[in-house]
């Protein structure tokens, strides 16, 4: 397993949201990024957590964090465990409460959104990074631009936009 950080949330050339995970021990010019395509709502949830943006009402991942805290449980770690036919799989390791240590199946976007809210470390299986990782060619300036654009979106979004 390789510990990673969220390097950014971006849009690909077709307008799809993608989260970029980068190994903590990344060596410039040799680094890999793990892109995982996610939905717009999931991208918003991750960016809200990363930027520490306050929302008028708790988002789903905020609710989950509160439930875990209320039950005396903590998120110990998040792992992107495998990729199968282009679909990524993740697990959330939760400790405490009445259940000891539990590993819970999750979508990577939900796992990362929860990790961002609980400061839990994120890991990627070596095999996943080898199979789906891409060379890190994104510059810091490009990442900052994407974050600025997404921040502007967050500031202008109305909670009513998320009602079904």
UniProtKB/TrEMBL annotation:
Gene3D superfamilies: Bifunctional nuclease domain
Pfam family, one: BFN_dom
Domain BFN span(s) in chain numbering: 1-136
Taxonomic superkingdom: Bacteria
InterPro entries: BFN_sf (IPR036104), Bi_nuclease_dom (IPR003729)
Source organism per UniProt: Microbacterium elymi
UniProt xrefs under SUPFAM superfamilies: Hypothetical protein TM0160
Listed name of the protein: Bifunctional nuclease family protein
